[in-house]
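Subject: Sanity check before I submit

Could someone independently write out the structure tokens for this chain? I want to compare against mine line by line before I put it in a report. The sequence has 244 residues.
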Amino acid sequence: MTGSGLNGAGFDSDVAGILNLPANRLNLCGQLKIPIDDEDVNPWDPALMDSALSLAMVEIEGISGLNFHKSQFALKKLFVKHKKNWIKTGIFAAAVLLLLLFNIIADSYTLNKQLNHYDQQIESIFKATFPKQKSVEPFQQMQINLNEAKKNAVGQSSAGPHLRSIDILNAISRSIPATITVDVTRMVISPETVLISGTTDTFNSVQDIKSNLEQIDFFQRVTISSTNKDRSGKEIRFQLKVEL
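---
Independent answer below. Compare away.
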């Protein structure tokens, strides 16, 4: 036994008498043959010094002693207790990450494939539209060519009439009254002329159609190209030429 309680007391002899066992005072320096500095003012007292010396020797020798600090083991106990659950969770998380990675790779592959397909389409359209030009950057070159075509169209429209087909059809539809029976079978619209072919009930109706078309502002001249009866003799086939 050792400790400060042995100083000035017969604790060791009392314990030996009660337990009927030999009780010896511990002296680590003597048993371990550790040299003591004799020049030290304070003499070595094993009862006071052995506890600190034992802790120092345990640290030096690397011996794992008892640890009564419960918080140091809390994390380890928690890990051991839930080890299986944590392993399952880790496996599940790894599987989810692998699925996400696979999904990203698949989406990237599909996107690249679509982009390559669109690039091929752009290049084929460019070659079909502009066969004489070399396609370095087809999309950009196509934009440049379209912008130039728009500029040329604007220049041409400023020099002469620029009419949309839908505007011409709307004007013709509005100019012919509902009282005239007419069936337009063919219409050819060019930048300078409009050819109208159809059938009506009488020759007078053809003349009335011509008169009404002449009232349209952007029609310069309307001419009856031909009029004749069909095989049944019940309808009049006609053809009008409109100059824009």
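---
OP: Matches mine. For the report I'm noting this point. Residues 187 and 196 are 5 Å apart (CA to CA).
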